[in-house]
Amino acid sequence: MPTDLAADLLTALAGRGYTLAVAESLTGGAVCAALVAVPGASRVLRGAVVSYATDLKHTLLGVDADLLATCGAVDPQVAQQMAQGVRAALGADVGLATTGVAGPAPADGQRVGTVYVAVAGPRHAEVRALALAGTRETIRADSVTKVLALARELVGSGTI
Question: Which pLDDT value is given to residue 1?
């Protein structure tokens, strides 16, 4: 399913003349991998930043250091700033971001399965809070699907 979502998203982005960049934390590159599995992805995809460590969210993506210190990395504002930051860092029209807790233990005061996915474009940014269940692998896979679906929805509707 992620490959179909990725293909649909890339087609929609290409149809609008948009480029894409991805910022990932808990998904560790899986969003980018789903995108590059689609032949021709290079027409749209500029690249990705895997900022697994919290400090990299600030230094590479420009996430506010005070926000990270106060709220931790698992926060809706962090997700939005990651998406906006990767757009700027990689010179893309649209940025995607994932941050959350896949387990096995809670992190940053958040329970396992707490995930935020974000999409930022030229006209709009949106964050979705997710409460996912299952194994670490399931939570990570579901996060990939959810961020691709959100992006496809927003690009397809012209909201972005």
Answer: 63
